[in-house]
Amino acid sequence: ATISEFEDSSINNLDSWCTITSSLADLFSSYIISQHHQDIFLHENMNKLAKTLQISLTKSPDFLISRFLSRLCRDFYDLSVMELKTNPNKDYSSKRYSNILFTTCVALKALLEDKRSLPPAWYYQITMCLFYLNFITEDIGNTGLDSYGTVYEITSTAISCGTDSRIYYDLLSTMKGNISHIISEPSKINTSRLLFMLNFMGTTLSEVPVITPQLIQEIVLPLRLTYLNSTSLDIRESVHVAMISLFMNSNKGLAKWQAQNYLNYLRISVGQFLDGKITEQQIILIFQKISSRVSSLSFFEKHLLRDALHYTYTKVLNCYKFQKEQQ
C-alpha cells in the first residue's frame, strides 16, 4: 500500500510529514525545471506523487506550505521564461506538461479545501502559479480537469471579495509587470499571460468591494488602450469581458466613473462591431450587461438613458440606410 491511499495512511508524526512534503517538493521542482534529463520512473508515476502530495500538504505546518508555494511560483516563472527563450510557440500538450498541470491542480485543490484558515498571501501565490502556467492550460484546456476549476474559483473569489483591496491591486500589478506589451513580438507564453490576466479581471472586477482610481488609471485603462484593437479576436473579446465586469460592479464609489464613461464605452463597442472586430454575440452581451446599470447610473448623469437610446437608435438607423443603399 502507498501513503497516497487515505485508508492506509498511518503516518501522524509532524516531522515525518514535513520530510515527506519537502522530499516531494524537491522531486516536483526537479521535474518542472529539468527539460532534457527526465526521470523516466517519475515521469510515468507523477499521478502517485500528486496523490501523496495531496495528503502531505494538508498535514504540513504553515511555514512549510508557504515555502512550497514560493518555490512553486519561482519554478513556474523559470519554466515559462525557459520556454519563452527556447521555443515560445511550440505545442505544450505533451505528457510532461500535462503532468505538471495535473500535479499542481490536485495539490493546490487539496490545500484550498483543507479546513484551516488560509493566509491571503497563499491565494496570491496560487493565482500567480496559474498565471505562469497558463501557456500549458491554453494548449491542454481545463475541460475535465475539475481540480483546476476548483482552484481558480476559490482563489479568485477569496481575492476579489477580500477586505484588503491592496492585495487585488498588487496582484494585477504583478501580472501586468510580467507581460511584454510589445505587440509586434507576440509569443504563446506572453499571450497566455495576457489572456489569464484579462479573464481574471473579467471574473473578479464586478465583485471587488473597492476599486481605486489608481487601479483604473494604472491597470484597466492602459490594457484597454493597448489591446482593444489587437489582431487577436480572443484578446479583443477578453478586454471587453474585463470592461463589462468593471461596469457591472455595483459599488457606489465607482458609480460616478461608470456614468461618466458609459457612453464612451458604448461608442467604442459599437464601432468595433461595425468594423468587424467583435462578433454579433459579443455586442449583444455588452448591451445586455451594461444596459442593466443605466437606471442606477442616471443619478450621476441624468440624461444617460436618453443619450444612450439616441446614440443606439441613430446607429441602427444609419446601418439600415446603408444596407438599403447597397441593395
N to C succession of SSEs: HHHHHHHHHHHHHHH
* Radius of gyration based on Cα positions: 23 Å
- The number of strands is 0
Q: What summary fits the major beta sheet?
A: none
By secondary-structure content and strand pairing, the structural class works out as: mainly alpha
Mean pLDDT: 88
- The N- to C-terminal Cα distance equals 76 Å
**Structural shape:** elongated
Beta-strand share of residues: under 5%
Helix content: over 70%
What is the number of helices? 15
Can you tell me the residue ranges where pLDDT is under 50 for at least 5 consecutive residues?
A: 1-11
Structural account:
By secondary structure, the chain is mainly alpha-helical. 73% of the residues lie in helices and 0% in strands. The protein has helices at 14-33, 40-44, 46-58, 62-86, 95-112, 120-140, 146-160, 165-177, 188-204, 213-227, 233-247, 252-274, 280-291, 294-297, 304-326. Helix 6 crosses helix 7 (146-160) and helix 6 (120-140) packs across helix 9. It is elongated, with a radius of gyration of 23 Å. 33% of the residues are buried. The model is unreliable at 1-11 (pLDDT under 50).
